[in-house]
Amino acid sequence: MAYLTLNRTKLRDNFQLLKEMFEKSDISWGVVSKLLCGNRKFLEELINLGVKEIHDSRISNLAKIKEINPEIQTVYIKPVSKRNIAKMVKYADVSLNSELTTIKWISEEAVKQGKTHKIIIMVETGDLREGVMGDYLLDFYAKIFELPNIEIIGLGTNLNCLNGVMPSTDKLIQLSLYKQIIELKFNKKIPWVSAGTSVTIPLMLNKQLPKGINHFRVGETLYFGVDLFEEKIIDGMHGDVFELNAEIIEMQEKPLLPSGTLAANPQGEIIEIDQQLYGKSSFRAILDIGLLDVDPKYLIPEDGEFEILGASSDMLILNLGTNPKGYKVGDVIKFNLKYMGALGILNSSYVDKVISD
Length: 357
Description:
Largest sheet: 8 strands, mixed
Helix content: 25-40%
CATH class of the largest domain: Alpha Beta
Strand content: 25-35%
CATH topology of the largest domain: TIM Barrel
GO molecular function: alanine racemase activity; pyridoxal phosphate binding
Keywords: Isomerase, Pyridoxal phosphate
InterPro entries: Ala_racemase, Ala_racemase_N, PLP-binding_barrel
Cofactor: pyridoxal 5'-phosphate
CATH superfamily of the largest domain: Alanine racemase
GO cellular component, one term: cytosol
């Protein structure tokens, strides 16, 4: 059976480097745990790092975090649906919001539960996902800052998550200015300006982050060590905290081209035939993982000498050429993962999850 490993030493190294970066810049931050898909073992590893604030987009995951350590500040990081507000208020100390009606419902529920719920107002800065348009922000704030059992602790934004709009110094200066305007007009302090996610870290490293930005929500760079501007690993960090291990369940030499009448496969693809490959063969390995678990385009083979040919729902097919390394049935092939690949596997109940050192 295929299995995924989380290397706790590499995870700790990445965490410590990020912690030092943020402390040096006097910035508070929380760790985004949604990639872990509520896996209890992996959440415990995260909490054991000394994390004080965890963000997630699934309420059930926040419930597990509170079960493991009730002292962790939990943050719900997407607009909440009406039917989930009661659970969200129960398990999330903070939430990101951009809808007036929803915040009124949250206020009502917080009163029922006898809690003060903290809110970060999300502001639209160009990527066109969630966020209040800047022209309406003052009116929006005026309508919610006096709601009972609601405490506004920040303004935030999300970039790069939908249309790929990258953060810039100018966009983040604008976010900081909104905070200053609100504080002056309403004589209320807003502690956080939450600049965004891992994609904003390169601005901090390059000393291009406006001074008013003082809070981050970080996931991808923690788990993959990546600078998302240049698509490279940040010096001193690890890109292979996660590793997929898949076993060879068939190994045979076969023709490079299929034979027979071709139609669309179950994925709707029609294979194109390269006439030059007629009569040629190669060793093909079948691995015990498939599309149900991960899209092959998110897999990075540690052995760069073979080609991923494709996948069906439960099997991945490799072209090993002449099989120079002598792979055989029962051998394990290792892959590093892109973010969406790790997310798919972590969400799969068919792939074992293992801690390694």
